[in-house]
Amino acid sequence: MNAPFASTTNERQSAGGGLLGRYATMLGAEMSGSSLTVHVDERYRLRLRSLPDGRIQVRARLRALPEPGRARDAALLHAGRLSCGRMNASPAACVVDADEHALWLQQVAASSSTQEIDELVGEFCNELAFWTQAVPNE
Question: DSSP letter string over 33-91?
């Protein structure tokens, strides 16, 4: 019974990877596995990745976190408050990386065309502009 699910998951991943690959070709960029790094306006560095379920994840590093202590606590509290305030305005989320070294902005969306990926990137960059000003890298 698990085989059809695995097959469906692989087909979706392949479809998402193919779509992201076509987007990379449209930009004249190269894929690295299932990921694509895009530079926007010489200001933002985005990483797009095909997920196993066929959706596209876009993320950008916001800032390094201070070492554990008061400065780190203050940075996390500030980011958390901003995140709560932005939940209704944007599907992007501010997250802490798995190693707890940095804050990232990320968003996951279903896309069925390179046009939709391009729109996702544009909307993400608009939100990223807010976050880079609101959470400065100190």
Answer: TTEEEEEETTTEEEEEEE-TTS-EEEEEEEEEPPPTTHHHHHHHHHHHHHHHHHTTT-S
